[in-house]
Amino acid sequence: MVNQLTLPTLNNLRSSVTPNVNVQAVASQWFSIFTEAMQSKNITAVIDLLVDDVFWRDVLALTWDFHTFQSIPSVKTFLSDQLPLFTLSSFKLREDLVELQRPYPDIAWIQGFFDFETTVGIASGVFRLVPLADGSWKAHTVFTNLEDLKGFPEQNGPRRDYQPNHGKWAAKRAREIECIDEDPSVVVIGGGHSGLDVAARLKMLGMKTLVVEKNERIGDNWRKRYGALCLHTPVWHGHMPYLPFPASWPVYTPALKLADWLESYAHSMELDFWTSATVVSVIPGTKGKKWTVAVQRADGVERTFEVNHVVFALGSDNGMARIPDIPGQDDFKGQILHSSEYNLASDHSGKKIVVVGSCTSAHDICADYAENGVDVTMVQRGPSYIMSAKEGMPRLLPIFWEGGLPTGVADRVGASYPSSLLKLIHQRVTKEIADADKELLDGLRQRGFKTTLGDDDSGLMFMLLNKLGGYYLDTGASQMIIDGKIKLKSDGPISRFTQTGLLFEDGSTLDVDVVLFATGYVDARHAYRALLPESLHDKLYPIWGLDKEGELNSVCREVGGRSKDSELNGIWCMMGDLAVCRFHSKHLALQIKSYEEGIFGTRYQ
Hints:
By secondary structure, this protein is α/β, with parallel strands linked by helices.
């Protein structure tokens, strides 16, 4: 990767854009040459269409993996290695989606969409052309993405079941759900949105899939969390595959409403799921399949399945709370909780509460206490990124907003930005949001609340991508801190528990009845280690966070790395927010389907 990345500003390019530029002509001319060069595998001709600091991101189409290549030498190596392996054809420019964009006064590019086919796949792409000093236009970003597999279309639309069903549907569904006539080809562990997304994608590809959910009902992973929980990302960002939210859906979804939607989704999509069921173990298979999965149901009956693919869809919290090891916990006479155990503020009426933590759950819970008249103090251990949902979300997610792009188009636009480039853009966006939130942020700092603008001042997105935490999207709790309704202690680390509360390193104390830790969850790999043989524990790659190319480590990938000889091949991860899972669940399903049909290529290393 190039060390000093910069945005392709007109100043950096020593260029300008004339008002009368013929956008369609520029895009068509570039794309015509690109098409000929790609189909003829003329690497030199392709490279000549790219700027020196180009980004090329490929998702499965040309690498059978998730890769970002940055700079001409890196892209040239990738194309030289991979183009000889594919027969590329049917390139078509989507003329309706070609446009000149000016995200900032000093940035201009022509964005275009295209379709093409590989040897086994149907693919799409996005390019952005920037103007050069000599009047030519070259690509600053190229995105190539596998959409479908040839010969294996999704079973929907014109391929839906046209046969009438008179009185047989219920019995048929019961047998399907119980896996009486056919064992699953894939077992999905977890019935939250990530598990349901993958199951729906696999079903559309004709793959028998069983979702195993430990709770009594689908949606209980949201239903059983604290009562004040509400999504802080907007409805347009959160649609699920095949069934978007109704047009009347609120912008920010209450957790209980989402829980009911997930349950409805599972039934409407006719997904096969077992609730009140627990996966006991996932061990190497002995009967011709890669894995043996043991599932225990509520009545104690255990059933095993031999499958080639197991998808862990357990979410970022994975049910394993992280509580700091603070001395003296056994001495404390009050109650110690983790945020995952919190339900209602009224459970602690008349008591004094300390919430340790200063990110999303901490703010939500503190606000719930304060609104219900409970004495609550937030203990902040380190700085947090704060932005208001009002000012931040329309700026961060303009393509996922009322009147924005169709969801499928927006997904591909978002995916077409490599994370290193996105970081540069978000440094600007983060400053804009902070300027709009100046009064709020100044008020917090005056109260002693420690703020940050994130990694290299890049704000929310990279706190999400790197560690899934460290932030709060304000929907009211920040003003409660400013107004003193939520008390704040941020002037020193906790030393130990006392019998009556907490002692801090500066010698100060807090006497409280309840200490609640809103301190997140342990490494997601713990959930895998709980089910896999110990001999495989050290084979697990990191799950979340970005790799050296800026791609998520194991999300939508097998969790044992990229080698075809990995002992964890067939163990997959699906996690992320609603948008990540909506888009990338298709990629995970395509990989599994191509494995099972014998057409999966070799992952590019």
